[in-house]
Automatic annotation (TrEMBL):
Pfam families: NeuB, SAF
GO biological process, one term: carbohydrate biosynthetic process
High-level lineage: Bacteria, Pseudomonadati, Thermodesulfobacteriota, Desulfovibrionia, Desulfovibrionales
Cited NCBIfam families: PseI
Organism: Desulfonauticus submarinus
Molecular-function GO term, any one: N-acylneuraminate-9-phosphate synthase activity
Annotated protein name in UniProt: Pseudaminic acid synthase
Top-rank taxon, per record: Bacteria
CDD domains named among the record's database cross-references: SAF_NeuB_like
InterPro entries for this protein: AFP_Neu5c_C_sf, Aldolase_TIM, PseI-like, PseI/NeuA/B-like_N, Pseudaminic_synth_PseI, SAF, SAF_AFP_Neu5Ac, SAF_PseI/NeuA/NeuB
Length: 344
């Protein structure tokens, strides 16, 4: 149970708008972003709770310089200094989100962040892909007894198994896993969405997707493969200077994603061969056997005079071989649906 939202095989997809660094250190932008996420159809807003000093040290030697990503040229400390959400904002943002009917929660990055979020009263926790191997942090989160959503980017199957066992053994509430490709932005060819049903089967847990690709194709496709959670970065405008802007969705895009996800949910339905009322109405437009030329009584039925055509008021097409060569019992006008009473 995630507050009043149940995530299971039969539930609606739980859609999370990730605020991340998309506030540009401006509280008013953060507030506007939360309101826009609600209008766009999100179920929840998620923050990240850390400070630069929690994440790394202020050092610019080669080990701490970022290479080969969209953040190339920065040190880790510089990136997190630019991206973190001030902790003094959390309480106000939580109230604003919950007043709007959104679920508010966060990703803690060290034990002090867990303590802070516990005092704040968040209903669940997110574990980031990079922290899936931080076993002490997982234990700290698990001991709260609250539900946990855990991203699995970069993790081997063995690492996921160890993380899940750690959460379970230390008392976590319900657990869900997110298929994630930890590249920013993530290329489509590296998404491997077929992992979603395998993860669900392997761990017998709800599975979703944390998506850093461009656009909405990946989250929508993931739902068709069984994803029950969709997490996507959300930004008011990609013109806002943010480390995550390039792979975040603007409000109109996020709304389109939500609408597409909800449409796919409806379309998935269940395994069924029963006809809907609309399908039953359409059966009349199937093919059946009709007389297509005027015929006299005693005249032989031939392929030129009897055909399988639409609509479906005549005999079933399976009977054509039984009828050819037989004779008409009465005069028959062109366009008459064939039935047994017309056949000698």
């Amino acid at each position: 149970m995630i507050t009043n939202t149940i995530v299971n095989t039969f539930s609606s997809v739980f859609i999370i708008a990730e605020l991340s660094a998309n506030h540009n250190q401006d509280f008013d932008i953060a507030v506007q972003t939360i309101k826009a996420a609600k209008e766009a159809g999100a179920d929840a807003i998620k923050l990240q709770t850390y400070t630069p000093d929690i994440m790394t040290i202020n050092c610019d030697n080669e080990y701490f310089r970022i290479k080969d990503t969209i953040w190339q040229g920065k040190t880790l400390y510089q990136l997190y200094e630019e991206a973190y959400t001030p902790w003094e904002w959390h309480s106000s943002l939580k109230k604003i989100a919950e007043d709007l009917g959104l679920i508010f929660f966060s990703t803690p990055f060290d034990p002090s962040a867990v303590d802070f979020l516990e005092d704040l009263g968040v209903p669940l926790y997110k574990v980031a892909s990079f922290e899936i191997v931080d076993i002490p942090l997982l234990r700290k989160i698990a001991k709260t007894g609250k539900p946990v959503i855990m991203s699995t980017g970069m993790a081997t199957l063995a690492e996921i198994d160890e993380a899940v066992r750690t959460l379970r053994n230390d008392g976590a509430g319900e657990i869900a896993l997110l298929k994630c490709t930890s590249a920013y932005p993530a290329p489509y060819e590296e998404m491997n969405l077929r992992t979603i049903p395998h993860l669900a089967e392997t761990f017998n847990l709800p599975v979703g997707v944390s998506d850093h690709s461009l656009g909405i194709a990946v989250p929508v496709a993931s739902v068709a493969l069984g994803a029950k959670i969709v997490e996507k970065h959300f930004i008011l405008s990609r013109d806002i200077p943010s480390p995550d802007a390039s792979f975040s969705l603007e409000p109109d895009e996020f709304k389109t994603m939500v609408e597409s996800v909800r449409a796919v949910e409806k379309a998935l339905g269940s395994v069924s061969y029963e006809l809907t009322d609309k399908q039953k109405e359409s059966r009349v437009f199937r093919r059946s056997l009709f007389v297509v030329k005027d015929m006299k009584a005693g005249e032989e039925f031939t392929e030129e005079k009897v055909k399988s055509i639409r609509p479906g008021y005549g005999l079933h097409t399976r009977y054509i071989s039984h009828i050819l060569g037989k004779k008409a019992k009465v005069d028959i006008k062109k366009g008459t649906p064939l039935n047994w009473s017309l056949i000698l």
